[in-house]
Description:
The protein is mainly α.
Amino acid sequence: MGVSSPAMQQNYTIPASAAMSPPTVDPAADSPLIAGGKLKDRHIAMIALGGAIGAGLFVGSSAAIHDAGPAIFATYVVTGLMVVIVMRMLGEMLLFRPGIGTFVDCIRTAHGPGAGFLAGWLYWLFWVVTIGAEAIGGAIIVNGWSGLPVWMLAPLLIVAVNIVNAVSVDLFGECEFWLSFIKVSCIIAFAALGAVALLHLVGPKISPLANIMAGNGPMPNGLAAVVATIPTVLFSMIGSEAATVAAAESENARENLGKVTRRIGLRLTLFCLVSVGMILCLVPWTSIVPGYSPFVTVMQALGIPGAAMALQIVVFSAVLSCLNSSIYITSRTLYGLAEKGDAPDAFRHLSRHAVPQRAVLASSLIGLFVAFCSILSPGVIFAFFISATGAVILVVYGLIVSAHWAMRGEQPDNPVFTLPLGRGLNMLMLAGMAMVMLAMLTQPDQRGTVLSSVGSVAVLSLIYAMKRRTGQSLGRRTGA
């Protein structure tokens, strides 16, 4: 959810006669993922948008701009298009099989229980490491305000957010709504201020062309440098697919799933493009310093007082939002795995408020362990966790695309499949993701992430093979 990069995360058969007929609606299709789900429509709308906007945009974009120059805008366009297509593919699969649930269920339906096991656990691992990384990031910010030690603040943040998630799903939704509201409002205000500045109504006189052509022009380090920033940009935009988990636990599950998958990718891309476009036009791109918020750089250039503190508050809200959502996502993913017999049955337990509290607690505790590892062994254990999960989200995205490829192959003429180019689009998407992996392999600081993540996939595949060979399930069900 808006993490800046892998290194900065401190991720049936239907009769042929029915091919042109609308899919039969499952009576349970409008039921939430967990009975008793109370997320409201406004929660879903803000979670879907705000959940994917985090420190990766507010801070992490500085490194991408510094490395690629103004050509980074094209990287955001291409990456945004990739996110839009993945979300549209999810939407088409959910229309094709109403009531199917989340994206993990789409993968399970198309490719079988093995793929569902792999996707679910990879996704859980990615976000449970993110819990620890975000807790440390938030603790560092609060440390600057209070002087309290990071080792004390990180657990306090996790405990506080754990309580929010453990009490009830509607409390989570309300907190996430307002945290996301802060981030979205900040971007809208930034865009409005930028527009006023470009009209020379505030701040010094600005020449967008001069800012873009500063240094050695729009592509100062060549095409290879632009391609190499794709992983950084992609990892700053991931998290949109997690909205399907929240939407499936809402009052109008099927309707919200459709809305989320149709709109979130486009809106997220628009917000990122407007933000980055304004930054490139308002200040010389050469003034952007990696690790320092370009939003602050712009507002200081415009003479806006208190810019640094205001952005610190926004970034802190982004961190809390990501931490809140990460605990929610990991707990629901763990619950879903237990439902299929792919995790211990204890994680299927629901409280009287229909919250999988044991899954919430387990995910939070492991996230807390990751946070302490970043303090006690940042260069070994924590670095291993980051590397082992940093690229797995690409594997999950690849499984989503291939699941759509399989479903579309069953009924290529079904009217729910509206994306152009047929299954050729799936092949283009898979090729694009392979290119991202190759781009990461060309970067010495990201090569270990790819190799370690491949190792995670291999280990989980081996665990599933052993589980299948023994005929046992980790939970009460068989996971068929």
